[in-house]
Amino acid sequence: MIRIVLLGPPGSGKGTQASALEAKHGIPHIASGDLLRANVKENTALGQQAKPYMDRGELVPDELILDMMAARLSEPDAQQGYVLDGFPRTVAQAESLEQRLAKLDQGLDAVIYLAVPEDEILRRLSGRRTCPECHAVYHVDTMPPQKEGICDKCGAKLIQRDDEKPEVIRKRLEVYTEQTRPLLEFYRQRGLLEEVDGTIGVENVVREIEKIVAGSRAAVSE
User: Which CATH class is domain 2-116+166-221?
Assistant: First the structure.
């Protein structure tokens, strides 16, 4: 069983690494951003409340996120472990998660922080293009589609999400610095925090994370 939280600024590679962990260990990749966007697309009550915050690059209020995540963590596929991507985002959320897991006699195995400088974050996010139909993701510099502006998989016209425009990215980074970075100290005090350089390349980051996972498993078995 592996219960992991991935922390890092927007565009640090949390989604990529969470997907790698999901594939290797058979645990669900639970991304708060994906759940929120699904609710917005489906125009649910949660989506209607969350959309204005997301469009401005601000954090969605804790009570909305916590209700959503509690429901997701109660699903059968999450009972043998999970990797959380984009949650918790505040110390208050982390405290609530800790309390909920304690009631289930559970705890996190590791909290992994992907460290990436701001200028690299801006380059990564502002160059992203997303398919609104099949959700494939491209990058104008590092992973462009075969035909400019068109999805390779389904032929839909690619878009730049509102929250990946430069002015909104800067706002997201401001919010991250003010509200999310304190999580590092929160988890450091609990002896869970591990830091990985997020600029060393995807495969190298995967290897570093696997070392942490192996170490956590060994510690549990001792």
Answer: alpha beta
Dist. CA 165–CA 134, nearest whole Å: 21
Which among 99, 113, 83 is positioned nearest to 19, based on CA atoms?
83
Partnered with residue 81 across adjacent β-strands are 2
Catalytic residues: 14, 89, 128, 161, 172
Please, are residues 99 and 170 in contact by the beta-carbon 8 Å criterion? no
- Counting Cα atoms < 13 Å in the Cβ hemisphere of 209 gives 31
- The answer to whether the beta carbons of residues 123 and 140 sit under 8 Å apart is no
> Which pLDDT tens digit goes with each residue over 70-111?
778 888 999 889 999 988 988 999 999 999 888 878 889 999
Name the pTM for this structure: 0.79
Secondary structure (DSSP) of 25-42: H---EEEHHHHHHHHHHT
The distance of Cα 177 from the centroid of its chain, to the nearest Å, equals: 16
Q: Where are the domains positioned within the chain?
A: 2-116+166-221, 120-160
CB count in 10 Å sphere of residue 15: 17
Residue 78 to residues 14, 60, 213: CA-CA distances in angstroms?
Answer: 18, 23, 17
Q: Which residues contact 152 (CB under 8 A, 6 or more apart)?
A: 136, 145, 146
